[in-house]
Amino acid sequence: MKKENRKLAQERRAKERRKKERRRKLKKVLLIGIPILAVVILAAAIIISAMSSSGDSESSEDQATEDTSSNDTGDTTDTGASSSTDTALTVEDGDTVNIDYVGTVDGEEFSGGNTNGAGTDLVIGSGSYIDDFEDQLIGAHPGDTVEVTVTFPEDYGVEELNGKEAVFTVTVNGIYE
User: Fold this and answer.
1) Which of the following CATH numbers is that of domain 83-176: 3.40.920.10, 3.90.226.10, 3.10.50.40, 3.40.50.720?
2) Cα–Cα dist 98/115, whole Å
3) Whole-angstrom Cα distance, residue 66 to residue 85?
4) How far is Cα 38 from Cα 89, in angstroms, rounded to an integer?
5) What phi-psi label fits residue 64: left (phi over 0), alpha (psi between -120 and 50 degrees) or beta?
6) pLDDT, tens digit (0-9, with 9 covering 90-100), for 26-71
7) Helix %, strand %, coil % for the chain, to 5?
8) What transmembrane ranges does the database entry give (predicted)?
């Protein structure tokens, strides 16, 4: 019986050693694998986030705005909602749109006439921009670039712009829904 008991005890110890070895290997894999998996998931999230925001930034990278210190500040509203870039949408009177623009007079960009890609919100028909500026955006779609030609009033308040014709290259970034 002693031989048999010894043999069973050896088998049991061998089984325990194999079990310990498997646990050690599993622990090692988990200690290495979990941080690697976390890094991969984080990298994927960053890439997805960058890809989803690149569509919005591409359309506004080369844009600019009008000086907010002038009389025609284009008081804008922050609706707190997000704008839609669905190109099937059309700018209509009363819509709130997000735009970028670059203004030029005699082919030269003027100080403050550029949003620098930051985007600005505008309620179409509010009259907060120079006469006819907003009307010329009606019918545009998100992603469209529109040339808006306006004449600054004689009493605009910025001497070098008073009474001058300006051309604004306007990009419609989105329409608030």
Assistant:
1) 3.10.50.40
2) 11
3) 23
4) 40
5) beta
6) 998 889 988 899 899 999 988 888 877 655 444 433 333 333 333 3
7) 35, 25, 40
8) 29-51
